[in-house]
Amino acid sequence: MKRVDVAIVGGGLVGCATAWRLSTAGASVELIEAADINAGASGQNAGSLHFQIERRFLENGDALAEQASSIVALSRIAVEDWRGLETALNADLHVSMAGGLMVAETADHVALLERKATREQREGLKVRTIDGDAARAIAPYLSASVLAANHSADEGHADPRTVTPALAAAARAAGATIRTHSAVHAIGRRAGGGFTIAGNGFSLHADQVLIAAGAWTAALCTLANLHMPLYPVALLMNATERTAPMVPHLVQHVGRRLSLKQTHAGNLLIGGGWPSRLAQLPGGGFDLSRRATMIPDSLSGNLRAAIDVVPAISRLNLIRSWTGVTAISADQLPIVGQVPRMPGLWIAAGGSAFTLGPTFARLVASAMAGGPSEALDIVSPARFEHLNGFMG
Amino acid sequence: MADILDVAIVGGGPAGQAAALHLAGRGLDIAVIDEQPRPGGQILRQPPASFTVPGWLAGRGYARLKHQLARFEALDDIRWLGGCSVLDLAPTMDGLSLLAATPGGISRIRARHVLVATGCQDLAVPLPGWTLPGVMSAGGIQAFVKSQRFIPGERILLAGTHPLQLIVAEQVVRAGGEVAAILFAQPRAGMIATAMRHPLIALRRAPDLAAAASAMATLRRAGVPVRFGAPLHAISGMDRVTGAVTGMGEIACDTVGLCYGFVPQSALPRMAGARMHKAGPAGGWACAHDHWLRSSVVGLSVAGEALGVAGAAAAAAGGAIAGIGIARDLGLFAPEQAERMARPHRHAFDTHRAFAAMLDSIADPTGHLPRPDAETLLCRCEDVSFETICGAIEQGGSANAIKLATRCGMGACQGRNCEPALLRLLGDVGRGDDPGFTARFPARPVAIGDLAESG
Ligand SMILES: Cc1cc2nc3c(=O)[nH]c(=O)nc-3n(C[C@H](O)[C@H](O)[C@H](O)COP(=O)(O)OP(=O)(O)OC[C@H]3O[C@@H](n4cnc5c(N)ncnc54)[C@H](O)[C@@H]3O)c2cc1C
Ligand SMILES: Cc1cc2nc3c(=O)[nH]c(=O)nc-3n(C[C@H](O)[C@H](O)[C@H](O)COP(=O)(O)OP(=O)(O)OC[C@H]3O[C@@H](n4cnc5c(N)ncnc54)[C@H](O)[C@@H]3O)c2cc1C
């Protein structure tokens, strides 16, 4: 039977980036993807490179916001990873880091911005709070309703269509085997160490396994008889027709769900975490094999938020809306690292892993090879060990 | 409008009208929605009410359809929602929900039953030069002639495989236009042989054949060459069409009408999640249905060309069956009564569909489509070339993966134009079972400002 150092389950950004890092470092790697490379969240997302603390961490009270601010340490590393990625891959990923603005429209939102900036500064992230006029001086397209903004000079966006395929190509070039249209159906522990990974028509031995299967990660963990508190969520995205350059920044909102940017092709992408409806299984449970459906109020709410912040959007045509499915963990932070009770089994899923994925990949690859892993401590699956007391 | 309609019919062509005629007068809340301001559909595309066209569609073949249209327009208990584009169709707990762009803004329409009768569109055929101004679909030329009596060119070349181009050419000539030539890519002998294999079907539809024969005669009198085994290779011109490179040499013209067949308008049933299957040889998707033309989605029926392209008479017969079926499901007819009422329409439906199948094989563009060259755009919304797409196909992905990698199908037309060409290319490399693009909202581009107010 074929034997590899590492088997990776999932051909999204996280799996492909880890395959690239590992094989570049000399490991033998096989990546197994159920569909096509980039078919999951990595190819459906908004492409925001957001390093400021996300609104979703701020809306559930100060205690959670405080806990979540620890993610800033990883965001700071991610800034550097993204700055080097195009050069490292020798590929055009349409990375643009022209800065990002998180805006506020009410006094309450302004207070939220200020508290957020204090946390970020404490963690060493370069963010400043500016008033509405200063924001409009940087971004004249912003509406008069914007009272203040946090500005991060590093934020921006990249092209989800090209990033993951470029990572997969680089992994292949470095010697990784990439198997598509092959779902993993079994993950077994071998006596004496290592794992057997199998699916339709293939099986292999691997010393270590990384499950990087996005929204499917919890289901794959069940194959190893483990609980992993990751839940699928379906989000809405919208694209306008192409238009002349008007929004060079990443624009987000601290009090409303909104993310907005203009792609290199000229379309404005409008998202921000508005829910869609996951397909259901007849007996209960979610069916991730079927497309999630749009919720009408999400559509109008998302577009209204966009127009309120950037009024010129009102006259543009919407040409496409889509739903994408990603994973959120029980405490909203990503789950990345080795499962303590199952040495050799690694997880990397959850969170905003377009922004943070290249960083997770680099850190996991290095930790798998025995390198330091302290940077991952805050996101380690160890924090959920109590759920697996009767598992494994 | 009622909070929830009993029936919403999308499309006011022959199929939608026939269904409405069977549902009207029974106390139901019914709306017929069409993006055209006036009913008629493709075949009876009506000139705007404000301007009359002398002898509008005087031909014999249209008499029945015009009669049906007049009866439809006389109905007084059906709401006609003209100028309204349906953007979305989704199942709900108690029926279906539609989102429509109306002249007064976006409006949500809920209905217990929906009939999709949205017709078909011309197959888009990418070939070198096809994006030059002056290249149109034959149907597009016909639409100009029919609704405005406007001839969109001084010297029109028609090329393709579908006999409809004879009718279009005749209409152009009768309206006083000049047709440079009509080119059928397939040899005449093959067409005749196909027809001869189905003599009974051909006989039953003698009027249609007579229409084609009379069109041929008109064209001959006007001195218009009709050529068979004469493929179109490329369209030439700098900033607009000046000629075409064909199997008969270079032909000078300022307009080219392409006529290789039709594909169903399938966006709405696909968005609703209905089971689809491959439509005729020209490509596209047709909605799977039972014998009341109900789709796999509860409450959603489909009639007309959206079921698979079969012509106006089949569309009208199917519309009648679907209308009776909906009335039956609403409890207005007992099952046996519905069956009795549907019988003559089923007979007509089957006959016309058999003819359509024969026409499909006569007009089959497989093997006769022009070849794009490396720079030919397959997706003209997003400027994606044939070469780029071939490169992506070699990577081995599905149509969705190729869309993601190349932007092919990501533009304003939602892939309506490029999907058949892409699926054909996948078929050529043994991947003909690809399920195609995932259907996405909205079915037509719509202003964000309007949508934002819809919630
Ligand atoms: C609409 C939307 C917008 C988003 N916007 C942003 C953003 O702006 N910025 C940001 O940072 N993040 C964003 N995210 C989150 C981000 O997209 C994800 O965190 C990231 O792409 C996850 O990458 P991944 O590789 O972990 O998972 P995925 O890309 O989902 O990949 C997982 C892969 O595993 C495969 N798989 C599943 N089961 C099996 C099996 N049994 N065997 C083999 N393979 C299997 C799947 O087919 C899939 O390809 C967004 C997400 C969505 C849905
Ligand atoms: C350009 C063209 C020319 C044709 N010419 C002929 C001909 O000369 N002879 C012939 O036998 N057949 C012709 N056909 C075939 C013809 O379509 C059918 O014979 C017949 O019209 C089909 O009837 P139907 O009711 O299925 O659809 P149609 O008559 O096409 O009616 C469908 C209606 O639905 C509406 N619609 C579609 N999508 C939406 C939406 N999302 N929202 C709101 N409204 C919508 C359209 O505006 C249209 O009025 C032609 C087809 C095309 C495309």
From TrEMBL, chain A:
Q: Where is the FAD dependent oxidoreductase domain?
A: 5-366
Q: Which PROSITE patterns is this protein grouped with?
A: PROKAR_LIPOPROTEIN
Return the Gene3D superfamilies for the record: D-Amino Acid Oxidase, subunit A, domain 2, FAD/NAD(P)-binding domain
Is the Oxidoreductase keyword given for this protein? yes
Q: Which UniProt keywords apply?
A: Oxidoreductase
Highest taxon in the source lineage: Bacteria
Q: Oxidoreductase as a keyword? A: yes
Q: Which Pfam families match?
A: DAO
| Descriptive protein name | FAD-binding oxidoreductase
Q: Which organism is it from?
A: Sphingomonas colocasiae
UniProtKB/TrEMBL annotation, chain B:
Write down the Pfam families for this protein, in alphabetical order: Fer2_BFD (PF04324), Pyr_redox_2 (PF07992)
Highest rank taxon of the organism:
Bacteria
Q: Where is the BFD-like [2Fe-2S]-binding domain?
A: 378-426
Which InterPro entries does UniProt cross-reference here? BFD-like_2Fe2S-bd_dom, BFD-like_2Fe2S-bd_dom_sf, FAD/NAD-bd_sf, FAD/NAD-binding_dom, Metab_Enz_Cyan_OpOx_G3PDH, Opine_Oxase_asu/HCN_bsu
| Gene3D superfamilies named in the record | BFD-like [2Fe-2S]-binding domain, FAD/NAD(P)-binding domain
Query: Is the keyword Oxidoreductase assigned to this protein?
Result: yes
Keyword Nucleus attributed: no
Q: Which CDD domains match?
A: GlpA-like_Fer2_BFD-like
Ranges of residues in domain FAD/NAD(P)-binding:
6-315
Q: Which UniProt keywords apply?
A: Oxidoreductase
What protein name is recorded for this chain?
Answer: FAD-dependent oxidoreductase
